[in-house]
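Submission sheet (multi-component)
Chains listed below:
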Amino acid sequence: AQTVTQSQPEMSVQEAETVTLSCTYDTSESDYYLFWYKQPPSRQMILVIRQEAYKQQNATENRFSVNFQKAAKSFSLKISDSQLGDAAMYFCASAGNTPLVFGKGTRLSVIA
Amino acid sequence: DGGITQSPKYLFRKEGQNVTLSCEQNLNHDAMYWYRQDPGQGLRLIYYSQIVNDFQKGDIAEGYSVSREKKESFPLTVTSAQKNPTAFYLCASSIPGGTFQSSYNEQFFGPGTRLTVL
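Outcome: structure written.
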């Protein structure tokens, strides 16, 4: 069974600054994928970034990047140059030979 | 435009009644999923289907039922046996790619249905 833990229920960041959201996971599978999803107030789930576990290089998508530490089973999300539109719930998720397992989420506030 | 639609957006149910939530996709995806979201709980998997006429229970299937008669549709019925059905329900779909590589592919989500039991 897979588990995903997000230890920060809430975070805040000043506009234009950088923030890092933490995520740890546990899995017995050797082949798996990791994801960060964003859920704005509209509640529409949006994929932010994904990482294949077999790839050592950290994934990046514009202002979003991850720090994937496979041995530590850590998968943090860094948001650079934070914008007001980044305010949302962020969910970390893991998928192996089973459907996605989600963490409980981190609510990110962006302060103007 | 391709996407996933869920209806209705808000649904009210009296205790003891069954209610069906609709999920339709025109993305030509084989795999579809139902999640329940409660405050502070993240998303929890109710049922999923990788192919027409086949579906599997997720982590919290008790009190729910599904059908998959068409590729495009995956309705969820919340039965009277579900003790605490008030929640936000999300439907998703993805392209499978192997044994369970559907989980490896991006899941596209619908806008959700808010169910309230009166």
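Remark: The radius of gyration of chain A is 13 Å.
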